[in-house]
Amino acid sequence: MPNRPHRTNKKLSGLAATAALLATLGGTSAPASASTKVTLTLQLQPNTGSISSSDNSVIASLTSQYEKAHPNVTVNWLPVTTTSITTANATLVSQASGGDAPDVVWEQYNPLLSGSIPAGVLQNLKPWLEKPDPYVPGNKKWLSLFAKSLLPYMTSPNGQMQILLGSNVETGMFYNKADFAKAGIKSAPATWNVFMADLAKLKKAGITPFFYAYGGLCNPSWYERLASTELLHGVLSKFMVDHSQVTSGTDVVSGIEKGIISMKDPRYAEVWKLLAALKPYMAGGGSSYDACSNPNTTTPPLSPQPGFVQGKYAIVWGGTWFIPQLGAAGFQGKYGIFPEPMITKATTPFSSDVSTVGVIGGPNGTGQWSVTSQKADHSMTPAKTAVVMNFLAWLFTPKHLGAFVNNANLGDIPTEPAAPTPSIPGMSSLVPKTNPPTVVDIALDDVLTTNTTNTGLRDLTEFLDNGESFTSFASQWDSNLQQGAVAYAAQNHLKLSSYK
Questions:
Q1: Using an 8 Å Cβ cutoff, are 220 and 201 in contact?
Q2: Residue 173's beta-bridge partner residues?
Q3: Do residues 305 and 161 lie in contact, with contact meaning Cβ atoms separated by under 8 Å?
Q4: With contact defined as beta carbons under 8 Å apart, do 32 and 90 qualify?
Q5: Is the separation of the CB atoms in 216 and 293 below 8 Å?
Q6: 24 pLDDT band (50/70/90 cuts)?
Q7: Poorest-pLDDT segment among 61-70, 170-179, 431-440
Q8: Which residues contact 215 (CB under 8 A, 6 or more apart)?
Q9: Are 239 and 255 in contact (CB under 8 A)?
Q10: Structure pTM?
C-alpha cells in the first residue's frame, strides 16, 4: 500500500458508455436517455480541501473530461471536513436515515468490514466489479485490475464488496540516523526484543528514545492492532464468527463473552503489558499529540513531526504520508524507516511468530469510496447507479488512478499494479510481501461503538499520563469492553448468551 497505464477507450463516450456498461452487467433498467440530466454527488478524500484545491487538480481535470464526453452528467464534489472516519460514518448514518446521503461517500475498509455501518446503507458493488471496466481495452473483469492481496480488504463477511480502494498507506518507525549512530545502533531492529534493547541504548546515550502520540487514535489504535493481531492469532478460531480479513464487532463480542478478550486472560493482558514496558522510553506530553495531525497544526493535538525534525527524540511512529511532509521540512536523507518490529516468542511466549508487516496500514489511502443505496439516498435509482459506476470506472482506470493518487502527494501507493507509482525511499520495507494475517481490532477503532473507542482512549491516556497502576487500568479497560459488548449486541440484535 505497480506500471504501464492503459489508454482510455474513446469509443465509449457520452451516455452510450453508460448504456453499454449497464447492458454488459445485465442491468434491466434503462440508463439515462439523451434528454435526461443526471447530477452525481461524491465526497472528496479528507485532507484534500475542495475540488478547486491543488491536491484535487487531477480529479477536477478527469471530471471535466468526463462531463465533456457525457454532456447530460454533472458531477458535484463535496469536501470532507473531518479526518475521523468515526465522525464521517456517524454523519453518513444520520443522512441515510432521511434518505439524504451523497451518492458516493468516503469510507474505510476497517469500520466497514467490522460491521459498524448498518445494513442497507451501502450498495454491493461486486456485480459491477465482476464485469469489465469499459475504459480499459481488453479488460474482462474490473476486479482483475486490483492487486490480489487487496481483495480481502474489499470483501465483507457476507461476501459483498461495498468499497473501492484506490491506494495503500503504510506505517512504520521513522528514526533519526544521527541519533542511532551516536547510540551505536548499526541496523534497524527487526524484532521487539531488539527494539527494546535499542531504546535502552538511546536512553543511555542521553537521547529521548521514542515519541508515542496518544492525543488522537492513530498511535494507540495502531499499537492495539499490531499487538492484538500477533498475540491473539493462535486463538482466533475460538472467537471468530464472521471470518473476515478484519475482526468484526460480532467477533469481538464473542471474544469478550468467552473471556478471551479480557484482561483476566494473560494472552490479552500481555498486549497492554508490552505497552506499559515502553513507558520509560517515551517522551513526555504524548497526550497533546496525534501522529495523524498535520505538521503545521498549532493547537492540540499537534503533530510529532516538528519535534522529530528538531532532534527532540530519536524515533517517531508515523505513516508514509510523513515522507513528503518530512521532505518539505528539509529533513530528507536524515532519517530512516523500519517496519514495526515483530513481537516474537523471544519477547513473550504468547507470540504466534507471524509477520505483522502491513496489518496497520493497507488500503487506507486516497480513493476510498462506497456507493449509497436507494434507502440511504432516495435519488439513487438503478439507472443512476449505472451512471455512478461508469464514472467510477473512468476514475479507476490504472492511468487515471495513478494520476490522482500521486497528485495528492500524500505518500500513497495505487492499488492497481498497472498504475504509475512514484519512487518512495524506504517504502519497500513497509509493504507486505504476502497477505497479512487476520487483523485483530478490538476497542480503539470503532469496532464496537464510538463510545467504546472514546472511553478506551481516555483510559489509555490516564494510564500513560498519570501513573495509574496496571491493575486499575485493567479493571477500567475490561469494564469498557463489557459495556461495549452489551451496546453492540443491543444495536445489532445479538443474544450475548449465545457467545458464551
A1: no
A2: 317, 338
A3: no
A4: no
A5: yes
A6: very low
A7: 431-440
A8: 286, 287, 288, 289, 290, 300, 301, 302, 461
A9: yes
A10: 0.72
